[in-house]
């Protein structure tokens, strides 16, 4: 299982992406947190923005499809997309998350 993150500009966009990812069967679960404050350099300038973070729980077998869909669908020019392998997942959660 992998855990992946991205951010978007507002709650409505976050809810839309989360619902579509789950409906399409690309993610087992998506959690939304926000607003959060991000500070970053964009086109040579320091920027500050309030954003919403999406945390995706995804089976390894669905990860590449989720990534392709997210990067194509995401409204940002260069979206944050960071994923890590889950070191430990309970057997029951893993079974639930990988159901078709």
Low-confidence stretches: none
Average pLDDT figure? 96
Number of strands: 4
Largest sheet: 4 strands, antiparallel
Gross geometry? elongated
CATH topology: Alpha-Beta Plaits
Gyration radius over CA: 14 Å
Counted up, domains total 1
Main structural class = alpha+beta
Instruction: Give the CATH architecture.
Output: 2-Layer Sandwich
* Strand composition percent: 35-45%
Helix segment tally = 3
Fold topology:
Layout lengths: L1 E7 L2 H13 L5 E14 L2 E14 L1 H14 L8 E4 L5 H7 L3
Antiparallel strand pairs: 1-3, 1-4, 2-3
How would you describe what is shown here?
- This protein is of the alpha+beta class and 100 residues long.
- The chain has a single domain, classed as 2-Layer Sandwich (Alpha-Beta Plaits), CATH 3.30.70.
- The chain contains 3 helices and 4 strands.
- The chain has helices at residues 11-23, 60-73, 91-97, and strands spanning 2-8, 29-42, 45-58, 82-85.
- It has a 4-stranded antiparallel β-sheet.
- The longest helix has 14 residues, at 60-73.
- It is elongated and about 45 Å long.
- The two termini are 15 Å apart.
- The model has no long low-confidence stretch (mean pLDDT 96).
